[in-house]
């Protein structure tokens, strides 16, 4: 990589964090000119953009990244590259991380597209890519990433609930009244109220509607 | 009548005529001086000199008019025979000629100096010359039969006549009807100089006719050969051109992909600039940077197109010094995209000094491209996909070795590679390597394909090196 094109020096800056909050995009392509072009566009659009000229380079730095959430992220990768192609990266990423992947290619081969989608790519873009198309695809990928993160957070919170609290919360979300729950579970109404209060506290919700949304999002299996 | 005839005068006349005719023919055939022509005309001079010496018998020392004259006659006969045999492409070996010459010389000198029998010596010389004359007549006949030159029948005619006269002279001399002297005045002695004159005139003219016919035929054949060569060259040029186009077709997918890269960059930078400017508070440095990138990528796309266009230049070849490293790099650029797609690593030679060959850059790059494409096809199914290109040069030639890590050649393939229409590929025509070999040979080089150690195939392209002296 040329010096002018080194990855951003403002990584630890507030500016970088602000960009990350909007979206962190990793571009991988063996063509330097392509990397520079996409980076120019994404920098302008306010994203935190990192570029790698090979999938191996990216996989190398990946373990050293802090695992804390800094914002939604996605990977934009060329499908045909020396050493490791986009599909192989997809397999490797699935093992290590759960970042949405966008694959791009210079040719519109139907076979490639099918392979890409089957491998789990979120979208398949054909070069040259229109800026609007690219940004839309990236935004969609970032949204997927955000939702995914949200689900993960909520799942973590749900895991802090005791079995009883979870049971009560599930029944509340299903629309049962406190009295019915007390009867069915054969516990005192006071106890039901206590469990319900604790569950809502742990899940950081203030209304029943929010509780319903979380339970739905995490798709807690009914026993 | 016999009383009025002077054999000396007629021999003198023959001698002068022989000299004039020989020199005349030699001059006429000056644009086609082969050894055969030299021998024939030389023989004329020898025999004329011999006749002159015979004529002067009595006035010059005997050694000249007997021994030397007969040796000169022998040389002239042998020269004529050898001349005709050269034209027939069945020359007598020099050793054999020398043996005949020495044998004749020894026998003649023995009869002349030791035996001192005039009749024996005369008959011996006559028998030998009759044999040689018949041999000349026979060669003339063969020239007509084998090569179809009718004029050679003149030679056959006059030398048959001379053979007959020799035989008659032998007969009359042996029976004592006439004296054993070439300058005798008997009836058959008169026939001898007349036959000599006839042989000098018609023999030489016949030979001239054959030589002229032959020269015409050679010109005609040469013209036909040249026409065929030009046609062949034109056709092989066209085939090579088609092969180049085919090679490019095979590369077109990867070249299209390669062209797509700068175009993608151009589009994105252009749209980025538009977005920057739309916002109103554009960072002008960033705008300039985008515009610079657009210019750079346009140049890159243009280079790719120029590379393709350079490769499909029309048929006409032109010889010029070709920088071998530049040639390798250009072809490597051409296949780089395909190599990337197929995940093949190309290892190019390091340029330590400028190395040149003489030839047509386009055609030579076609050869290298063919080898590289073969190598890339060979490693498709290998886990290790490397192609090593090495350049070895010495003072007289350069050797380009291209080795792959494929499975190499099976014995069956090994025997047939380079033959037209032999191919191991489902889509191949089987002409590529044959064309590459033809082009290489036209450049005075060699292209071979062998198995390499420890694995893979090794193509070796050898070309004469062109030394360019810097001024």
UniProtKB/TrEMBL annotation, chain A:
SMART domains (alphabetical): HTH_LUXR, REC
SUPFAM superfamilies found in the cross-reference section: C-terminal effector domain of the bipartite response regulators, CheY-like
A Pfam cross-reference name: Response_reg
Positions of the Response regulatory domain: 24-142
Any one GO biological process: regulation of DNA-templated transcription
Source taxon at top rank: Bacteria
Gene Ontology molecular function terms on file: DNA binding
Name of the protein in its database record: Response regulator transcription factor
Post-translational modification 4-aspartylphosphate, affected residues: 78
Keyword entries, A-Z: DNA-binding, Phosphoprotein, Transcription, Transcription regulation
Gene3D superfamilies: 3.40.50.2300, Winged helix-like DNA-binding domain superfamily/Winged helix DNA-binding domain
Native organism: Thiospirillum jenense
HTH luxR-type domain location: 154-219
CDD domains attached to this UniProt entry: LuxR_C_like
């Amino acid at each position: 990589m040329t010096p002018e094109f080194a990855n951003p020096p403002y990584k630890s800056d507030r500016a970088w964090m602000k960009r990350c909050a909007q979206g962190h995009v990793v571009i991988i392509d063996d063509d330097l000119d392509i990397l520079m072009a996409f980076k120019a566009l994404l920098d302008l659009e306010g994203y935190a953009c990192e570029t790698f000229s090979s999938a191996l380079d990216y996989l190398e730095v990946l373990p050293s990244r802090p695992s804390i959430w800094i914002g939604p992220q996605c990977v934009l990768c060329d499908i045909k590259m020396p050493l490791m192609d986009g599909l192989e990266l997809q397999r490797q990423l699935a093992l290590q991380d759960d970042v949405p992947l966008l694959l791009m290619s210079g040719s519109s081969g139907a076979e490639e597209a099918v392979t890409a989608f089957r491998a789990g790519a979120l979208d398949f873009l054909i070069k040259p890519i229109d800026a609007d198309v690219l940004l839309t695809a990236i935004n969609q990928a970032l949204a997927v990433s955000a939702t995914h993160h949200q689900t993960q957070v909520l799942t973590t919170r749900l895991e802090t609930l005791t079995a009883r609290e979870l049971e009560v919360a599930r029944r509340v979300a299903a629309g049962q009244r406190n009295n019915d729950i007390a009867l069915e579970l054969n516990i005192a109404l006071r106890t039901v109220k206590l469990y319900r209060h604790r569950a809502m506290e742990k899940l950081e919700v203030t209304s029943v509607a929010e509780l319903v949304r979380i339970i739905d999002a995490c798709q807690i299996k009914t026993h | 009548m016999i009383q009025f005839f002077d054999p000396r005068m007629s021999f003198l006349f023959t001698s002068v005529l022989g000299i004039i005719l020989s020199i005349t023919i030699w001059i006429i055939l000056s644009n086609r001086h082969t050894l055969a022509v030299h021998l024939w005309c030389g023989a004329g001079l020898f025999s004329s000199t011999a006749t002159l010496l015979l004529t002067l018998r009595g006035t010059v020392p005997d050694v000249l008019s007997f021994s030397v004259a007969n040796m000169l006659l022998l040389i002239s006969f042998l020269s004529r025979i050898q001349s005709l045999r050269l034209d027939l492409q069945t020359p007598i070996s020099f050793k054999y000629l020398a043996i005949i010459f020495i044998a004749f010389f020894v026998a003649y000198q023995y009869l002349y100096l030791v035996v001192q029998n005039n009749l024996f010596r005369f008959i011996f010389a006559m028998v030998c010359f009759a044999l040689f004359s018949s041999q000349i007549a026979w060669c003339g006949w063969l020239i007509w039969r084998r090569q179809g030159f009718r004029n050679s029948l003149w030679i056959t005619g006059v030398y048959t006549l001379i053979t007959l006269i020799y035989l008659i002279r032998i007969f009359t001399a042996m029976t004592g009807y006439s004296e054993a002297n070439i300058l005798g005045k008997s009836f058959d002695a008169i026939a001898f100089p007349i036959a000599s004159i006839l042989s000098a005139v018609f023999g030489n003219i016949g030979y001239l006719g054959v030589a002229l016919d032959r020269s015409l035929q050679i010109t005609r054949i040469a013209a036909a050969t040249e026409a065929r060569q030009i046609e062949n060259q034109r056709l092989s040029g066209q085939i090579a051109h088609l092969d180049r186009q085919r090679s490019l077709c095979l590369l077109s997918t990867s070249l299209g992909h390669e062209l797509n890269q700068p175009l993608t960059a151009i589009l994105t930078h252009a749209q980025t600039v538009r977005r920057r400017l739309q916002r109103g508070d554009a960072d002008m440095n960033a705008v300039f940077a985008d515009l610079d990138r657009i210019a750079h990528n346009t140049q890159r796309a243009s280079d790719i197109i120029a590379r393709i266009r350079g490769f499909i230049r029309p048929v006409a070849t032109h010889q010029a010094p070709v920088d071998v490293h530049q040639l390798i790099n250009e072809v490597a650029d051409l296949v780089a995209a395909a190599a990337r797609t197929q995940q093949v690593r190309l290892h190019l030679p390091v340029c330590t000094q400028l190395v040149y060959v003489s030839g047509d850059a386009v055609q030579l790059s076609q050869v290298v491209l063919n080898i590289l494409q073969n190598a890339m096809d060979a490693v498709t199914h290998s886990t290790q996909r490397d192609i090593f290109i090495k350049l070895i040069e010495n003072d007289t030639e350069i050797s380009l070795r291209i080795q792959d890590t494929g499975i190499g050649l099976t014995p069956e393939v090994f025997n047939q590679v380079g033959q037209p229409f032999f191919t191991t590929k489902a889509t191949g025509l089987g002409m590529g390597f044959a064309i590459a070999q033809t082009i290489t040979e036209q450049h005075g080089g060699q292209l071979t394909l062998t198995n390499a150690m420890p694995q893979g195939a090794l193509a070796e392209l050898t070309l004469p090196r062109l030394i360019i002296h810097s001024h």
